[in-house]
Amino acid sequence: MRKILAVLAAGVPLMAAVCLPTASADTQGTAAATPSPCSSMAVKAPAGTEVESVTAVRRPGGTIEGDGLLGGTVSGVPAFCEVTVTLTHPGDGDHARVQTWLPEQRWNGRFQAIGGSAYRAGDNGVGLGTAVKNGYAVTTTDAGVGDVLDTGWALDGEGRVDTALLENFASRSQHEAAAVGKEVVASVYGKSAAYSYFTGCSTGGRQGYTEAQRHPGDYDGILADAPAISWDEFEVATLWPQVVMNNEKTYPADCELDAFTAAAVKACDPQDGVRDGFVNDASRCDFDPRRLIGTKVVCHGKELTISAADAAVVRKIWDGPRTATGKKLWPGVPVGADLKGLAATSTPDADGNVKGTPFPVPAAWVAIWLKKDPSFDVSTITYSQFTELFRQSRAEYDEIIGTDDPDLSAFRDLGGKLLTWHGQTDQFIPTQGTVTYRRQVEREMGGTEKVDDFYRLFLAPDTDHCGLNGADGSADGLAALAAWVERGEAPRTLPATLVDSAGEHADRNLCGYPRVSRYRGHGDPALASSFRCLLPPRR
Length: 539
Description:
Helix content: 25-40%
Number of strands: 18
Strand order of the largest sheet: 1-4-5-7-6-8-9-12-13
CATH architecture of the largest domain: 3-Layer(aba) Sandwich
Pfam families: Tannase (PF07519)
Structural class: alpha/beta
Keywords: Calcium, Disulfide bond, Hydrolase, Metal-binding, Serine esterase, Signal
Protein name: Tannase/feruloyl esterase family alpha/beta hydrolase
GO molecular function, one term: carboxylic ester hydrolase activity
Strand content: 15-25%
Family: Belongs to the tannase family.
Shape: globular
Largest sheet: 9 strands, mixed
Number of helices: 15
Distance between the termini: 44 Å
CATH superfamily of the largest domain: Alpha/Beta hydrolase fold, catalytic domain
């Protein structure tokens, strides 16, 4: 459990940072509204729901402790009114809580909603507190489900998928939270928010895309980072590294995996014109892991020699899942990403034997939603069974939680703006899945330039899952989105601070897809001004 906590805290740090920007939090031109007393109010039930309860409690602020597995804290939160509305869908037996926090003073006139992480549908308190600290009235929903690794809600008493709760988690509750949150804001402040935003990373990123696709009028702007779109496909696909190791009966040690990653980064670093510790276009890194065969590495005090079998496993993991006939099913783990995220193994037992340790999110999806058996042993999956599971997941769940509809015309026509950044070394959600979706939108909606009018994607070099919100660096995506929505200033680049493997910081202007960063040939590589954005050469 300690390892899972560490992985989730590093890989899904949405709670701690999606609401960090301050540049976008200035109070609107008119004086901020004075809230009415924090007291219970009548709330209109969104279509298809009933309101079970409404409570309002004044909170003094201070330091907010995040609940659940992710934890975290935020300090300096001003006093706020906490309104909790519990909804149910008649006949479904669900109880979805919508929580809205409203600052007593200095509301900036904006409404923000926050998405979730892994199997958690909403925020754990840290994101809410950060938003209030930055002047936002903010909403989140638990969708009637549980914490990040809580899947106890997935099956009903008869062992069947609880489709009502899955629909809540997939999309329904986010839309209802938007309606409830806006109504609460108008009731407390006596006027509606001037602008509304949705922010999220990972599961929260997928929820943002769901809003754009299915409920295009809910938000003026959506910041949806490292999005878990194509959920029905990528969740199965990210079990592939474990399937490979189990079928090849080869389990590279963590130090060996790190050696492959370090060698790939070293080989591909100069591709942007300068050796600076960053691979600016990981999709073009074609490092062959077989180059390390025979290399010796020291792992936990023991010298190991990288074998041909080790290299073959890493090659399959980087390539990504394929059918027995070689048909590509999904992108693999990006070259340069931490292979230990999805290809983790146990510590050796007394006899020196190890086994795979699957990341719990895809393992749960396969065992529970596909096999309908929480005790199913995913280590038994063969290559042919993997292909069957991939196709089964797509057939059963694409319409519910695929979140990959490329027709964003309604969102565009309503003036909505969608901004996404995705780390190029995301170890949990393959970056190229997001790129594939963006290309599908371009084909559907008239090409790159027309799509750029309302939807922009930025890829962050050497940045892991949700990493710009954590140890890998920072970027103020919400400030850029607000400038786009409120002042029409479309972001050509997204300023960011990156951190390389040695812990050195460098400023970069993330390039809007499909452009990539290229060194100008002079200047300090740690400065963004030493790089420019260019279209990559055709393959």
